[in-house]
Amino acid sequence: MTLLGLLEREPSHGYDLKRDYDTFFSRGKPLPFGQVYATLGRLARDGKIVIGEVEPGVGPERKRYVITDRGATEVESWLTEPVEAEPNLQTVLFTKVVLALMLGRPAEEYLDRQRAAHLRRMKELTDIRRGGDLVDAMLADHGLFHLEADLHWIDTTVARLDALRTVVRR
Q: Where is the Transcription regulator PadR N-terminal domain (predicted)?
């Protein structure tokens, strides 16, 4: 959907789409060229984009992709629908705590290690927020807020471990 949205902005070559995606959305995880072209192929197959002008080049011909009315309608629909509220009630963090308690393992130690990992990541994100541009800062804030909520949950869980241990060992 992101590539389709970028095409609604303006017709583009696959290389330009990858560059724009990586600039605004990837943050440390660049989109592989193969994934860009595979996605463009599916979008074309599904009638959401068409190949516009083709330019000769030193290598393969450069295709400019253009969004169709069907594609633009899908982008509009996607943008107006809310993202599913997260998190789900089943998380890996919760699962590990409950299993540790069920198996008689030290859940407190696991939670301490998890807290330390969260704090390290929060420091990294804080550094990104301070040194980055507005896009980096906003993405870092999003991550920080989620990590803060996890830390609150970790602290609450530590306070309730004895009671939870009793429930899961029945």
A: 3-76
Q: Say which residue the tokens 């409950």 belong to.
A: 98
Task: For 49, list phi and psi in degrees, rounded to 5.
Answer: -140, 160
Task: Please identify, in words, the CATH class of the domain defined by 1-80.
Answer: mainly alpha
Instruction: Tell me the angle at which helices 107-131 and 134-168 cross, rounded to the nearest 10 degrees.
Output: 170
Residue 110 CA to residue 154 CA, distance in Å, equals 10
Mean pLDDT by 10 residues, the chain (170 residues): 92 93 83 94 96 75 91 92 69 86 90 93 94 90 93 95 90
Which residue's entry shows tokens 């011909």?
61
Query: How many CB atoms lie under 10 A from the CB of residue 133?
Result: 7
Rounded CA separation 120/89 (Å): 25
Amino acid at 50: V
